[in-house]
Specification:
The protein has 658 residues and is α+β, with helices and mostly antiparallel strands. It has three domains: 250 residues, P-loop containing nucleotide triphosphate hydrolases (Rossmann fold, 3-Layer(aba) Sandwich); 172 residues, no CATH class; 166 residues, no CATH class. The strands form four sheets. It has a six-stranded mixed β-sheet with strand order 6-7-8-3-9-10, sandwiched between helices. Strands 12-13-20-15-17-16 form a six-stranded mixed β-barrel. A four-stranded antiparallel β-sheet has the order 2-1-4-5. A hairpin with a 2-residue loop joins β18 and β19. The longest helix has 44 residues. 42% of the residues are buried. The structure holds adenosine-5'-diphosphate. This is ABC transporter-related protein. Its main location: membrane. One of its GO terms (biological process) is response to antibiotic.
Length: 658
């Protein structure tokens, strides 16, 4: 077991005792390592040889802390590694071990320099560039530091890999068939580099099946069927001080900087520009649609509110007939018929300020050779004040004109424009339904909405409209204005009971009229807006779901595609949570871009709609915030599974993944 004396005895750095490793696939057991015991001293250059399948790689992976034995102990610098957790092993790999693989395992989309600097990222070190440059110079590749692996020869790539293995100044270099993929010339180069490193005190453990390569080593261990069959020392270890037992950083120390995570995520997302763009398209379109629709919805709401305001405040609308909303419309005979006397009686109620009757219809207005079809409204004297309709040009009709059914009228701005163009209509004589009228005023503009132009109207005294133009004996409508907002309920009640009395309704009888106040209308509006909001929310949810699935799909592909990269990162010291963070941040970066571009597109669409279609739109900062938060949440939500999948990969299997 792990005793301090074992370390002090010699320059021993690692010791295996009765180590076994069994692979189980189904019922079949493969004993890859059987009862291996071995000590290795500082400064040794060891070649592990043996036929294929004899357990060389398994031994190297176990020594390099990439794999765990099933039984036996492995003591490294006096510490028992078999009881360590995965994070500690990752940290040890990062600080103590440097790996060189047959397949080089360089990141193809990063420069040689960035490849060399990668272990420093996981060590949380600063001045990564300087250290990496120094190591690259040591293997004679300073002049190729900006090149990508694809632009380097096999020998050069392997030298980059050696520089990467050295960058954290590890105690041991583990090399798995380092010359297996190289021509003879490059093989000689690499062996020279390794020998030189050994001469300078580095411990090197190398797996090879080539005799000539093994010749360079000072100790050759021969394996067969998971056992060491010979262990031959040709040269003494390079003399030197025993390497100090390395300080292991505390847990959590050497944490990889967030900016490094971000940089890596951006590099990865932008190295597949087209693919990343296509996969964020779902999010992009979803966010854009939601923002544009929210803007439209709000625009509509605000313009409706605007026109409600122009109706006047504290207003009660009273119309004959029962409310359809309350139930079945009962047969005729129980519909109130309002007259001027009702209006006067309502106006006398204590809670009421004004009241007016109203009739409506349609007609033709003719001026000289122009004629125009429009709406006509007959209204009471107080209507002008109540509904903010006092004319901007000209005057309102007088009480006297109302009494004598005078043939005067006021025109809305649309009518004024159509009939009179630029000239003033005041005092002009027009024909309305073949009756001569004098125009006395132009109404203030009230705007228009999708279904109605509020300025395409003619107003006249209600008496004139009823008896001279429309031939009606009763009012279509009454409006009453309460003294103030607080009195609305009282006013409604007073008007109701007054009208019931005047209509001679007995106790059990239903109302023959309906009173609505503006807050009813507002409530309807709120309800409509809420329904619209739910609808929008549903669309948003669906589009974000679809977008999220797109992201998840591409992240899963990416994890599979980069399995060997993940293995390599783990070998050089990435902990599970580093890999998790890497993939999570990558998917968040993608969805964030999707959200950002979608927001821009949504705002652009909203602006285009107001500019070209003339619709009112309103983009609130909260909808942008919502879009951002949602897209980031989608990134985390849908990126988590692929990221966990990546983080839980076994380093050895990941490295071997084809
Ligand atoms: P070498 O490197 O000497 O070729 P390995 O260490 O790769 O040998 O393998 C030793 C034995 O373990 C072989 O018989 C191999 O088939 C088996 N083996 C290696 N990895 C696995 C695995 N993941 N699952 C099952 N068997 C494995």
């Amino acid at each position: 077991m792990n005793t301090p004396t074992a370390v002090e005895k010699s320059h021993e750095i690692l010791r295996l005792e009765n180590l076994c490793r069994v692979y189980r696939s189904g019922d079949i057991e493969v004993h890859a390592l059987r009862d291996i015991s071995l000590t290795i001293e500082a400064g040794e250059f060891i070649a592990i040889m043996g036929p294929s399948g004899s357990g060389k790689s398994t031994l190297l992976h176990t020594l390099g802390l990439l794999d765990r034995p099933d039984s036996g102990t492995y003591t490294l610098f006096g510490r028992d590694t078999t009881k360590m957790d995965d994070d500690t092993l990752a940290t040890l790999r990062n600080h103590l071990a440097g790996f060189v693989f047959q397949q080089f395992h360089l990141l193809q989309r990063s420069s040689a320099l960035d490849n060399v600097a990668l272990p420093l990222v996981y060590a949380g070190r600063r001045q990564k560039k300087d250290r990496a440059e120094k190591r690259l110079a040591e293997v004679g590749l300073s002049h190729r530091s900006g090149h990508r692996p694809g632009e380097l020869s096999g020998g050069e790539q392997q030298r980059v890999a050696i520089a990467r293995a050295l960058v954290n100044n590890p105690a041991v270099i583990f090399a798995d068939e380092p010359t297996g993929n190289l021509d003879t010339k490059s093989e000689a180069d690499i062996m020279a580099v390794l020998k030189d490193l050994n001469r300078r005190g580095k411990t090197i453990i190398m797996v090879t099946h080539e005799k000539e390569v093994a010749e360079h080593a000072g100790r050759i261990i021969l394996m067969r069927d998971g056992k060491i069959v010979s262990d031959e020392k040709k040269a003494a270890p390079v003399p030197g001080d025993p390497p100090p037992a390395p300080d292991l950083p505390d847990r959590g120390a050497g944490r990889i900087a967030f900016t490094d995570h971000l940089r890596q995520a951006f590099a990865s997302v932008f190295s597949h520009k087209m693919r990343s763009f296509l996969s964020i398209l779902g999010i992009l379109i979803g966010v854009a649609a939601v923002i544009a629709m929210l803007a439209l919805g709000r625009g509509a709401k605000s313009s409706i509110e605007e026109s409600l305001k122009s109706l006047g405040s504290n207003l009660l609308a009273i119309r004959p007939g029962t409310s359809i909303m309350r139930g079945v419309h009962t047969a005729g005979g129980d519909t109130a018929q309002f007259t001027d006397a009702d209006v006067t009686a309502v106006a006398k109620l204590p809670s009421i300020r004004y009241s007016t009757g109203m009739v409506g219809g349609a007609g033709q207005i003719v001026f000289q050779n122009k004629n125009w079809s429009t709406r006509v409204e007959g209204v009471g004297y107080d209507y002008g004040v109540m509904r903010a309709s006092l004319p901007v040009v000209g005057r309102w009709f007088t009480k006297d004109e109302l009494r004598r059914r005078a043939k005067v009228l006021l025109v809305g701005t649309t009518v004024a424009r159509e009939l009179f163009g630029e000239t003033s209509p005041i005092g002009k004589t027009v024909k309305f339904n073949r009756i001569n009228f004098t125009v006395i005023g132009v109404l203030p503009p009230k705007g228009s909405n999708a279904w109605r132009d509020n300025d395409d109207v003619v107003l006249m005294p209600v008496t004139t409209a009823m008896y001279r133009v429309l031939g009606k004996t009763h009012l279509d409508f009454m409006y009453a204005e309460a003294l103030n907002q607080e009195l609305m309920a009282t006013a409604e009640q007073e008007v109701g009971s007054l009208l019931r009395t005047r209509q001679r309704l007995s106790r059990g009888q239903d109302d023959t009229f309906t009173i609505r106040n503006l807050s009813d209308i507002q409530e309807t509006l709120t309800a409509t807006t809420r329904t619209m909001g739910i609808l929008l929310g549903a669309i948003a949810a669906i589009s974000l779901l679809v977008g999220g699935i797109g992201i998840m799909n591409i992240m899963l592909v990416s994890v599979t595609e980069r399995t060997r990269e993940i293995g390599l990162r783990m070998a050089i010291g990435a902990r599970s949570r580093d890999i998790l963070m890497q993939f999570l941040i990558e998917s968040v970066v993608m969805t964030f871009w999707g959200g950002l571009l979608g927001t821009l597109m949504g705002v652009g669409t909203a602006m285009a709609l107001s500019h070209f279609a003339g619709w009112t739109t309103l983009v609130g900062p909260d909808s942008i915030l919502l879009a951002t938060v949602f897209s980031v949440a989608v990134g985390i939500g849908f990126g988590l599974w692929p990221a966990r999948k990546a983080a839980h990969l076994n380093p050895v299997e990941a490295l071997r993944y084809e």
